[in-house]
């Protein structure tokens, strides 16, 4: 009878050791997967925001002076919108690989009244002043 109890205890101990080994290997992998998933999600949301704003700028430019467009966009984290003259862009900090710059092409010079976008939904208004082809298109936003 003692042999059956000893064998059961050895099987139980073997299963526990296997579970400990699996846990020590899989927990770091799960943590990294969660970080990668968050990076992808934030990058996709920021890319949608930047592309939506660029599309609004290009539409206002196509319609000419006096045009106005208001859109609603979501920012997953607090970031700043910048421009280099031919692109608008945001730099997204990633958990795994440093920052990623997400940019979209625009057809006209823009001025950004408040470049910092807080986390949350924003109403973005893109306007081009009436009868003035030299003034930059203005981008303004308010937190919803």
- pLDDT averaged over residues: 89
List the strand order in the largest sheet: 1-8-9-6
| Biggest sheet overview | 4 strands, mixed
Q: Label the structural class.
A: alpha+beta
Helix content: 40-55%
Q: Tell me the total number of β-strands.
A: 9
Instruction: Quote the distance from N terminus to C terminus.
Output: 73 Å
* Tally of DSSP helical segments: 1
Identify the overall geometry. rod-shaped
Element-level helix/strand string: HEEEEEEEEE
Rg from alpha-carbon coordinates: 26 Å
Low-confidence stretches: none
Strand content: 25-35%
What descriptors fit this protein?
144 residues; alpha+beta; 4-stranded mixed β-sheet; 3-stranded antiparallel β-sheet; 9 strands; 43% helix; 31% strand
What do these coordinates show?
- This protein has 144 residues and is of the alpha+beta class.
- The chain is built from 1 helix and 9 strands, in the order H-E-E-E-E-E-E-E-E-E.
- Strands 1-8-9-6 form a 4-stranded mixed sheet, covered by helices on one side.
- Strand 4 (87-92) and strand 5 (100-105) form a beta hairpin.
- The longest helix is centred in the N-terminal third of the chain and has 62 residues, at 2-63.
- The termini are far apart.
């Amino acid at each position: 009878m003692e042999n059956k109890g000893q064998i059961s205890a050895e099987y139980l101990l073997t299963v526990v050791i296997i579970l400990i080994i699996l846990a020590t290997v899989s927990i770091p992998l799960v943590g990294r997967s969660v970080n990668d998933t968050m990076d992808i999600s934030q990058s996709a949301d920021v890319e949608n925001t930047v592309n939506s704003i660029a599309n609004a700028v290009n539409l206002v430019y196509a319609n000419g002076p006096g045009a106005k467009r208001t859109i609603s966009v979501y920012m997953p984290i607090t970031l700043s919108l910048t421009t280099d003259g031919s692109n608008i862009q945001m730099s997204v900090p990633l958990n795994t690989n440093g920052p990623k710059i997400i940019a979209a092409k625009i057809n006209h010079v823009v001025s950004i009244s408040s470049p910092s976008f807080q986390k949350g939904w924003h109403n973005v208004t893109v306007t081009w002043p009436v009868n003035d082809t030299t003034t930059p298109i203005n981008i303004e936003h308010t937190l919803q």
